[in-house]
Amino acid sequence: MKCIIVDDEPLAREGIKMLMDEYDELELVGEFGNANAAALYLLDNQVDLIFLDIQMPGITGLEFARSIPKATLVIFTTAYSEFALESYDVDALDYLLKPIARSRFDKAVKKAFSYHEMMTAENQMGNILESVNEEYIFVRSDRKVCKINLKNILFIEGLKDYVVIRTIDQHYITAINMKNIYERLPKNVFVRVSKSYVVNVTHIDSFDNNDLQIGKYEIPIGAAYRNDFYDNFVTKRMLNK
After folding, report:
1. CB–CB of 78/55 below 8 Å?
2. How many Å separate Cα 101 from the centre of its chain?
3. Which residues form the domain of 225?
4. Are residues 69 and 156 in the same domain?
5. What average pLDDT score do residues 123-151 get?
6. Are residues 118 and 196 in the same domain?
7. Last-in-domain residue among 98, 123, 148
8. What is the pLDDT of residues 76-94, one digit of tens each?
9. SS3 string of 104-115?
10. Rounded to whole angstroms, how far apart are CA atoms 216 and 209?
């Protein structure tokens, strides 16, 4: 995978390069101290993955992420945890806090490998959502048409023009955007809680004002979707005195 690093701190760029050295599959093709320089590079060069700082002079990482090609994955690297929710609104693959721990970096990179491989395969196949009924959907994934029971879906994660359908025992990636798949799902079961996530309410274990828990997965609740989530899920199901 061809990668670039965009960070205004030279020491931070060196730290990411040291972490990357463990992976022969990652080819560093450029490093930049600001988003403007990176944007110019992307005009003439294809990149698979960007390690992107958020707080930079001029154009911020969040602003820059909204302009990059749809096929390019983004992993944010930042010292500020308060931008985590916003990162999901620009379809970031992951969000790493500095100083970046080796275990978290490894997890993010393996996720990038998985997504890149599946996206490449599904692009070659012409992947589409086949059909939806009240109990199951058919999707093209991993070079075949798969039947997925709706009751087994934990949540759906959007990533640009793809979605990852996470079920109880596995996951599927399919080339359809979040808006289109959400419109075709039963609204009494599936609730959109952010730009990047639709959840099956029957699998929610707990929640607070900012996040909800489904098994081992912590899913952010976007500010723009919070009221609908509470009105359509919490209020109607809450037991009162």
Report:
1. yes
2. 20
3. 126-237
4. no
5. 72
6. no
7. 123
8. 998 887 776 676 677 788 8
9. HHHHHHHHHHHH
10. 18
Q: How many residues does the chain have?
A: 241
**Which of 41, 70, 50, 44 lies closest to 2, judged by CA?**
50
What is the sign of the dihedral through the CA atoms of 119, 130, 217 and 178? Answer: positive
pLDDT score recorded for residue 237: 66
Q: Residue 70 and residue 63: Cα distance in Å, rounded?
A: 15
Query: Measuring CA to CA, how many Å separate 233 from each of 38, 166, 193, 230?
Result: 42, 20, 10, 5
Same domain, 32 and 55: yes
pTM: 0.62
Cis check: omega of the bond before 99, within 30 degrees of 0: yes
Q: Note the pLDDT tens digit of each residue in 199-239.
A: 999 999 999 988 999 999 999 998 889 888 888 777 766 65
